Amino acid sequence: MYLPSHFAESDRQVLHRLMQDYPLSTLITQSSAGLDANHIPLILSAEEGEHGVLRGHVARANPVWKDYVATTEVLAVFQGADAYISPSWYPTKKENGKAVPTWNYAVVHASGPLRVIDDAEWLRALVTRLTTHHEAAMAQPWSVGDAPPDYIEKMISAIVGIEIPITKLVGKWKVSQNQPVQNRAGVVDGLLSGAQPNGAAMAALVASKKE
């Protein structure tokens, strides 16, 4: 990933927070046919290992858990808030016209070896943890025990677990740090105008960063 120093984010807590807030990863692996990309929600165990451990599951019918190069690390990409940035939001545009559009985004790249876990009890524990985590904010949280046991067993038999001990964690926060303070303020105002679907989330990121 192209990473100018002023866009680099190295705070592990910040990186972990994005991964937890946006858990749907793009998992990139090397298969026998070349690069393969799958979109898989992964849950982070932040306190394990040097950078944390990612866990999730894939459909048993998905060849990703069988057709991958074990000697090559995989890459999980977590995409946070992103938004188009209009040059019309820059006060400096009115002064000299020297402004062009750009795109702001926050992203985390997590690399590590892929481990395949085909164990029903491990999967049951993972599915229970995932469910508890994602259902926590629901008015009437669903739990694994709400479904018939034989149905859950059938569903678990149709998936395979994956685990990625993170060996490298890279973050890029392209959130207008390269702009003067008046332009950053203009970007925040523009994003909060309601024109962008992720405007409020990106505005908060822009406001939180300094040069």
UniProtKB/TrEMBL annotation:
Q: Which SUPFAM superfamilies match?
A: FMN-binding split barrel
InterPro entries assigned: Split_barrel_FMN-bd, TR_PAI2-type
What Pfam families does this protein map onto? FMN_bind_2
Which residues are in coiled coils? Answer: none
**PANTHER family documented for this protein:** PROTEASE SYNTHASE AND SPORULATION PROTEIN PAI 2 (PTHR35802)
Q: What is this protein called?
A: FMN-binding negative transcriptional regulator
> Which species is listed as the source?
Herbaspirillum rhizosphaerae
Top-down, what is the taxonomic lineage of the species of origin? Bacteria, Pseudomonadati, Pseudomonadota, Betaproteobacteria, Burkholderiales
